[in-house]
Write a structure and sequence with these properties.
The complex is a heterodimer. By secondary structure, chain A is an alpha/beta fold. Chain A contains 17 helices and 11 strands. In chain A, strands 3-4-5-6-7-8 form a 6-stranded parallel beta sheet. A 3-stranded mixed beta sheet of chain A has the order 9-10-11, with no helix packed on it. Chain A has a two-stranded antiparallel ribbon with strand order 1-2. In chain A, α3 runs parallel beside α4. Chain B is α/β, with parallel strands linked by helices. Chain B starts with a strand and ends with a strand. Classes of the chains: A alpha/beta, B alpha/beta. At the A-B interface, α1, β1, β2, β3 and α2 of A face α5, α6, α7 and α8 of B.
């Protein structure tokens, strides 16, 4: 099998891993060695699905002894298989890197023979890259659950970032979908790496000659939509991972049907909007100082029509409106329509002069959302007198209605109204709201 | 009306600041190549003056916020013909009050910051969008960025590829960054021979990888084009469809005077 064919098969098998970033590690170049790493990471290209290519994301092999129902490389799947040998993979990484195609290597693999055997081969590759080839760029390596602690530690010495994929958001899912794995097996290496990172930081404080251990931290991935898990549960799991394992990132991947397994959803479009909303909520956890408990209860889902921050704000209308010229930075971050950049801009420029509504517009604040939640020098610019339902209606992106149209034909048999259905109640409420709005508009004699 | 003309460099910009204060000239500044002779404007060419430059530079370094210094550096390289005038006005308003440099309610400040961000973003993007081809042991790359970002790229690439001889050629401006052993050199007014812009054999592997790493079910060309605008696609080997050409034994003399 020639190299081109191997690239085709093994890149295709690696594509469902969403992690792409080359961030979190900043290392200067050394004389005699090739490359460096940049803290912010660099995207080198973008594929037709809009995701960035930063690292050469590829499997060492897609042969696998496991039979995880959600994975396309499972043993029961009839699929072209290939294996890279060490030299090929190293030559590929080095020449891609020298041509500035990539930022480094993201090495993952199917499990062959045993977790230890696979992990050892992977460690051998990254070790050769680092020591023999003097490769100083970014390396992200996937940890095989069940590999021995010594191998995991060794991988951490050569990698910038390591990851273990949790994939299934609920503990109960494992038994049915991936009998060989369970939550404990996956969390064990994560715990070990988290502990080792803390140890390493402490050692580096004492002596500067200590070797780095996973300077870019660790990440994981959860599948969205393969199991009937609520968004609230997913977010609280992420919150736990950020808190107790100091994870740098949790990635979410909308489930794409790769399997005919009866336990998994069939013939569905990947829930991309849901994934997007969960990512937005994830950003709120990591950068906006929110807690998962504030955003959603365990069994709740995110609203597809509005972003999670707006959803939170509408559920906490008693905190609003806030005076933009006086409130704390933390509160600025919690106003819908104000992002990190805008919050910083408001915070800096209100020291010079008080902020005006025009000024906010210039700064790039999304006033369509923000105006309902703020006072500018004591004046309220929203038009619905803080009425939660009206504000919702006016800033809703109406994604559910668009989606309804996409399906075209509607099966009327399924559409018999069910009095107990909460969705129907919501719909009727919206109709009422429209009628009410229309009445107010008429009574005021114009549009608003 | 008197207007000033300069060569686009930071040195002459600061001399222009000096002239505005000492000779009381209106703060209007154009690059030589952007200025078109007309009946009304009376052009004054800025001549580099070491004393004036050093005096203004030290004043700026003492007084201005660090953010403002970055903003000035980046915004000056923006391709817009208005950028030197706006940067000049920005410097003057910062002299009045250094904190004005981050007053986001001021339209002038906001516009200069926007220009600076455009340049900063593009120079960050191009740390990724440069593609080298190996020709006779030399790594050659051609780019066509909107703004003049070659100087911002130099530190990144020279430190990353210390052991490589490489050329990054800005076709639009006829400029090139040449580097060897971690040292950088800029050449102006040159034209690279087209035979040095061919691709090498490794492009095939990269294209194969690029095509297979995309998830077909998630096709989203809008997102792709937002992150990687189509105007850059000509110089990226993965998005151009013609077959790569392998070159052997090319002669090493890629730089010919224009």
């Amino acid at each position: 099998m020639d190299l081109l064919e191997k690239i085709r098969i093994l890149a295709d098998s690696a594509k469902y891993d969403v992690s792409c970033s080359s961030s979190g590690s900043s290392r200067l170049s050394k004389s005699g060695a090739l490359g460096n790493t940049v803290a912010a990471g660099i995207c080198h290209s973008f594929t037709s699905d809009g995701r960035c290519i930063s690292l050469l994301k590829i499997l060492m092999t897609n042969y696998c002894i496991y039979d995880c129902a959600y994975c396309q490389n499972r043993i029961s799947n009839d699929l072209e298989r290939a294996v890279f040998n060490v030299d090929e993979l190293i030559a590929l990484t080095m020449s891609f890197y020298r041509r500035n195609y990539i930022e480094g290597l993201f090495l993952s693999s199917g499990v062959i023979k045993s977790p230890n055997y696979t992990m050892e081969l992977m460690v051998q590759i990254i070790k050769t890259l680092r020591i023999k080839e003097k490769f100083n760029g970014y390396i992200h390596v996937k940890i095989i659950p069940g590999a021995s602690a010594i191998l995991i530690h060794e991988a951490g010495l050569y990698a910038d970032r390591v990851s273990v994929n949790i994939e299934l958001p609920e503990v109960d899912n494992y038994k049915m979908l991936t009998p060989e794995k369970n939550r404990a097996v996956i969390l064990k290496p994560m715990k070990q790496i988290a502990d080792n990172i803390v140890e390493n930081k402490e050692e580096k404080r004492i002596s500067k000659y200590v070797q780095n251990f996973v300077p870019g931290g660790q990440s994981t991935q959860l599948i969205i939509g393969a199991t009937p898990t609520s968004d609230g549960k997913i977010l609280s799991l992420s919150q736990n991972l950020y808190d107790s394992y100091q994870l740098k990132r949790v990635y979410y991947s909308a489930y794409i049907p790769v399997s005919r397994n009866a336990l998994l959803p069939q013939d569905i479009a990947p829930p991309l909007l849901r994934e997007h909303r969960i990512y937005q909520a994830d950003w709120l956890l990591r950068f906006y100082k929110f807690n998962a408990k504030e955003l959603l209860k365990e069994d709740e889902d995110l609203d597809c029509n509005i972003d999670p921050k707006t959803q939170w704000a509408l559920n906490n209308m008693d905190l609003f409106p806030v005076e933009i010229n006086r409130c704390s930075y933390e509160m600025l971050l919690r106003i819908p329509g104000i992002g990190l950049t805008s919050a910083k801009r408001i915070y800096q420029s209100r020291k010079l002069s008080s902020i005006t509504f025009e000024g906010l517009k210039k700064m790039g604040i999304v006033l369509k959302r923000a105006k309902h939640f703020i006072l500018v020098s004591g004046k309220y610019y929203g038009n619905y007198a803080l009425n939660k339902d009206f504000i919702y209606e006016s800033i809703s992106e109406k994604k559910d209605q668009i989606q309804l149209n996409l399906f075209g034909e509607i099966d009327l048999k399924k559409a018999i109204p069910n009095e107990q259905d909460p969705a129907l109640g919501l719909f009727m409420k919206k109709v009422d709201l429209q009628v009410e709005k229309e009445m107010i508009r008429k009574s005021l004699g114009g549009n608003f | 009306m008197k207007i000033m003309i300069f060569d686009g460099s930071m040195e002459e910009l600061l001399v222009a600041v000096f002239k505005v204060y000492i000779e009381k000239i209106d703060p209007i500044l154009y690059r030589k190549e952007d200025f078109i002779m007309n009946l009304i404007d009376e052009p004054i060419e800025i001549l580099y003056d070491e004393d004036a430059f050093i005096r203004v530079r030290s004043a700026i370094q003492d007084k201005f916020l660090e953010e403002s210094l970055d903003t000035i550096t980046f915004a000056l390289k923006n391709c817009s013909e208005k950028s030197p005038t706006l940067v000049l006005k920005y410097i003057i308003s910062c002299f009045k009050n250094p904190k004005e440099g981050i007053n986001y309610q001021n339209s002038l400040v906001l516009e200069v910051i926007k220009m600076a961000r455009q340049v900063e973003l593009e120079s960050h993007r191009f740390t990724g969008f440069v593609r080298f081809s190996v020709i006779d042991g030399i790594y050659v790359s051609k780019i066509n960025p909107d703004h003049d970002i070659l100087e911002f790229l130099a530190p990144h690439f020279t430190s990353r590829f210390q052991n490589q001889k490489f050329i990054i050629y800005d076709e639009k401006r006829g400029k090139a960054l040449i580097s060897q052993n971690g040292q950088a050199l800029f050449k102006n007014d040159i034209k690279l021979d087209s035979k040095f812009l061919l691709r090498d054999s490794f492009a095939v592997y990269w294209k194969e990888y690029y095509d297979n790493i995309a998830i077909k079910e998630r096709r989203n060309p809008k997102a792709q084009k937002r992150s990687m605008p189509t105007r850059y696609w000509d110089n990226l080997i993965e998005t151009k469809n013609d077959e790569p050409v392998a070159i052997k034994n090319a002669i090493w003399n890629p730089l010919v005077p224009n």
